[in-house]
Amino acid sequence: MWVSIYLFMWSFFFFFFFVSYFVNLYFNTNLGFSSSSSFTKVKLFW
Question: Among 4, 13, 36, 38, which residue's Cβ finds the most Cβ atoms within 10 Å?
């Protein structure tokens, strides 16, 4: 039971990290935004 909760927490964390990373790359390549703004949002969220 606890192992499944632990794995779910880690999978959610890595999923959120990769989604924010690829969204960051997408905005950097297409719109030229600086990566610092989205990373500060991720830091504020956590």
Answer: 38
Tokens of 32: 């030229």
Q: How far is CA 34 from the centre of its chain?
A: 16
In the DSSP assignment, the letter for residue 34 is -
pLDDT digits (tens, 9 = 90+) for 1-46: 788 989 898 999 899 888 888 877 776 665 544 445 555 555 555 4
Cβ-proximal residues to 27 (8 Å cutoff; 6+ apart), any chain? 33, 38
The whole-model pTM stands at: 0.44
Provide the 10 A C-beta neighbour count for residue 20: 15
